[in-house]
């Protein structure tokens, strides 16, 4: 019996990144299974199955003596070698780079089954999450740094100015690898680009003095950071942005991203225009009632109850003359299929619509943003943008 590939260092067993678009899907899935068996053997996803656990337990390591005949000694030898391999920082960094490249190019994989594509992305994210769980080193964090540059347009004409944002897309932090707030998703990228391209369309050129802007489910903070860098170039009005989220780990990464883009400058009195805040949509604090001139939320609805909580939270926060921009990702396959319908449905029942000063919170406009090649996950088809007002 030959040794399973999971006992071989990732640097010598994973298919080269340049071949990801040409190797058979079975090769990619086998590589993911091997990484899962190596780095997270105690919490393998259902897609891996118990057979791989048995193989791993029986595996003869490439570093173990082939002359070993005592089964107990051989098992101890194999486990010792696996422990050393798991602790190898170079191999972990190599695996992180490979997994990140796979997720980034998932849309381009030659697959007809979108559910299969989604499963590959989920399995890759699962392994990345295990690295974060075990406090991956700085090399792994640096490999996930992303730089964005959005051209700024003035009255529809491109200028020489750009909004430049650097983000740390941290490996997923919990055993629940769907903790999406640590990643920058397609909706926030496409929408941030459009805000810079057409700020007038979103009312950004006519904000009231000392405008208060709140982002709900800010995640890595791309939308908030884009606004913080865009607004001073198109308006002289003062403003403040509050980037909110529910997960403490997400907020910690968000604070890191804000510090990266707005470093402390001891020689100036410049105040960072963004602060962070923990916010539970189901119980928004009383002191935030009717304080927001503008709300943003991008790709934050993943269940019907999310849409209702989000609507009621927005009603609590939004001033009577405020605007709420909600961006929902359209997925036509997988467990999140139909989510845009739940978001829209939350604003259709007249009896459930929140009221304020004789007005109801309604969707007054909607339009579609096309998915851009190389941006977002493979299961993303397009993005629906809703403009929501008190009317």
From TrEMBL:
Signal peptide: none annotated. CDD domains: AdoMet_MTases. InterPro entries: Methyltransf_16, SAM-dependent_MTases_sf. This is S-adenosyl-L-methionine-dependent methyltransferase. It holds the Pfam family Methyltransf_16. SUPFAM superfamilies: S-adenosyl-L-methionine-dependent methyltransferases. It comes from the Eukaryota. One of its GO terms (molecular function) is S-adenosylmethionine-dependent methyltransferase activity. It comes from Periconia macrospinosa.
């Amino acid at each position: 019996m030959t040794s399973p590939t999971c006992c071989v260092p990732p640097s010598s067993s994973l298919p080269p990144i340049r071949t990801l678009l040409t190797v058979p899907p079975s090769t990619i899935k086998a590589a993911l299974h091997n990484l899962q068996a190596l780095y997270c053997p105690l919490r393998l996803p259902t897609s891996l199955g118990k057979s791989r656990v048995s193989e791993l337990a029986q595996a003869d390591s490439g570093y173990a003596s082939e002359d070993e005949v005592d089964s107990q000694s051989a098992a101890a030898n194999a486990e010792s070698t696996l422990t050393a391999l798991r602790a190898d920082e170079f191999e972990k960094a190599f695996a992180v780079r490979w997994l990140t490249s796979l997720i980034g190019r998932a849309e381009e994989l030659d697959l007809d089954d979108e559910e299969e594509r989604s499963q590959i992305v989920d399995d890759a994210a699962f392994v990345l999450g295990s690295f974060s769980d075990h406090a991956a080193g700085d090399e792994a964090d640096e490999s996930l740094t992303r730089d964005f540059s959005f051209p700024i347009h003035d009255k529809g004409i491109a200028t020489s100015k750009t909004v430049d944002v650097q983000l740390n897309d941290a490996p997923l932090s919990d055993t629940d690898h769907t903790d999406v707030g640590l990643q920058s998703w397609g909706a926030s990228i496409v929408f941030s680009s459009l805000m810079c391209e057409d700020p007038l369309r979103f009312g950004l050129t006519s904000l009231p003095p000392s405008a208060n802007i709140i982002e709900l489910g800010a995640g890595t903070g791309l939308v908030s950071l884009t606004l913080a860098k865009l607004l001073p170039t198109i308006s002289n009005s003062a403003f403040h942005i509050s980037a909110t989220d529910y997960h403490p780990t997400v907020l910690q990464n968000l604070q890191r991203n804000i510090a990266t883009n707005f470093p402390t400058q001891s020689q100036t009195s410049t105040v960072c225009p963004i602060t962070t805040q923990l916010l539970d949509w189901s119980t928004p604090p009383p002191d935030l009632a009717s304080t927001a001139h503008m709300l943003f939320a991008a790709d934050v609805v993943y269940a019907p109850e999310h849409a209702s909580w989000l609507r009621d939270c927005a009603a609590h926060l939004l001033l009577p003359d405020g605007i709420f921009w909600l961006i929902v990702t359209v997925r036509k396959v997988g467990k999140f299929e139909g989510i845009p319908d739940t978001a829209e449905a939350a604003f259709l029942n007249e009896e459930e619509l929140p009221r304020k000063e004789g007005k109801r919170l309604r969707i007054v406009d909607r339009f579609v943003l096309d998915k851009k090649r190389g941006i977002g996950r493979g299961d993303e088809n397009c993005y629906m943008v809703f403009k929501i007002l008190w009317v």
